[in-house]
Amino acid sequence: MSDKIKMTVENGIATISVNRPEALNALSKDLIDEMDAMLEQIKRDPSIRVLVFCSEKNFAAGADIKAMAVCDPEGARAFVFSDTYNKIEALGIPSVAVIEGYAFGGGLELALTCDLRIASRDATLGLTELNLGIIPGAGGTVRLPRLIGEAKAKEMIFMSRIVSGEEAERIGLVNVAVAPEELRAVATKWAEKLKTRSAVALRAAKESIENGIRDTDYVSAIDREAEIWSSLFSSYDQKEGMAAFIEKRKPKFENR
Q1: Can you list the alpha helix ranges (DSSP code H) found in the chain?
Q2: Residues 61-92: pLDDT tens digits?
C-alpha cells in the first residue's frame, strides 16, 4: 500500500482518503486498485457500519490525465474505474462523500457512487471530460441523469459546466451544502446517525430503492418492496425496534 491513499476505521466508521496534494488528489489507476482492496476488506468486516470518502482540501480533481493520455482503446478500457465504483454502489452499508475543493471527472463520479453527498458551499463540481475530447467513463453519463434529470445532466456534461456546492444542492447533485467550517462536523453527525440504524434495515432499504430505480415496471418494483419489507419481520432488529417503540425507549439493534 502506498501513502497516497489510506483507510482508517474508528467506532464502526471507515474513512477512505486520498493524499496527493501535488495533484489536487487526482485519482490514478494504482490508487483505484488500492481502493478496491480496501472495499474488499470492508465487505469482510461486519463491524464497519458506514463508509466515508473524505480528503483534505480537495475531494478529487479527476483522474490522472498524463497517464490516461497515452492509452489506446484497449488500454483505456483497462484504465477505467467502473468496476471499483460499482463495488461502492453495491455495498450493503451506506456510503457518504464529503466534498470540499474540487470534485471533477472521476472524482465527481466517485461521489456519485455514494448513497449521500455533503458538500462545502464553495466546493466546485463538474464532469468536464468533453474538454479533453472524451466523455465521463466511470458511470457519470449513467448516474448523473438518474440523480438530477436528463436535461440538467446533459447541460453539465455537454457544456463541461462547473457548479458550486450551493448550486449542486439546488439541483439535487448533493444532499446538502454547508459552510466550509461546518463540513466535517456535519459529516461526522450524519455518519454517527447512520451508525445507529439497524444494518439489516438499512441494507433492505438500499436494495429496495435501487431495485425501484432499475425496474421500469412500477407495479413489479412495489411488489419487490413488499417482499423485502415482509422479510424483515423475521429479523431480531424488527422485533427489538417495535418493542422499543411500544415501551418508549431507544432500540438496541444487533444488526441481525
Answers
A1: 29-44, 65-69, 73-79, 82-90, 106-113, 140-148, 150-158, 165-170, 183-196, 199-214, 218-231, 236-246
A2: 988 788 888 888 888 888 888 899 999 999 99
CA distances (Å), origin 65, targets 12, 39, 88: 35, 24, 23
Q: Return the active site residues.
A: 109, 129
Interval 233-245: pLDDT, tens = 999 999 999 999 9
Q: What is the DSSP string of 160-226?
A: T--EEHHHHHHTTSSSEEE-GGGHHHHHHHHHHHHHHS-HHHHHHHHHHHHHHHH---HHHHHHHHH
What is the rounded CA–CA span in Å between residue 9 and residue 50? 10
Amino acid at 166: E
Report CA 47 to chain centroid distance, whole Å. Answer: 19
